[in-house]
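=== RUN LOG ===
request id: a7f3
mode: sequence -> structure
chains: 1
length: 138
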Amino acid sequence: MNEWKRPLPTIPGETMPFWNGCREGKLLLQQDEATGGFQWYPRSINTMTPGGKMNWVASSGKGTVWTFTITRQNRTPGFDDGPYVLALVELDEGVKLFTNIVDCDPFDVTIGMKVEVTFVSANSEISVPFFRPITKSA
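=== RESULT ===
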């Protein structure tokens, strides 16, 4: 992906730490202080311990392709550069997030493929997390 053509994400206040982390090359998750469990997507409430404290922590940035689809054609501006992979990745921390798999042929992606986060700069303020295959040498 060269020049960013997709819409920019909306960044409500409760997600600001996540996006600040992305800009710094860190994939941050919310972790429940009482249980150690993680939640995804970023939000202002704790879904594990009502009223409990959530901390922002750096994830390993590694995960597994849980499921995916190859988009061959999309007429939506910014998403019309197919084929590309939309995947549900399960992070090593146990949460699942939707993302694109990049830096490989879309037809080489498989369920169970090990992946790691990489960040694509949309502009000087926003970097978006995508995932790429982990090579054997990594």
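=== NOTES ===
The chain is about 5% helix and 35% strand.
The radius of gyration is 16 Å.
=== END ===
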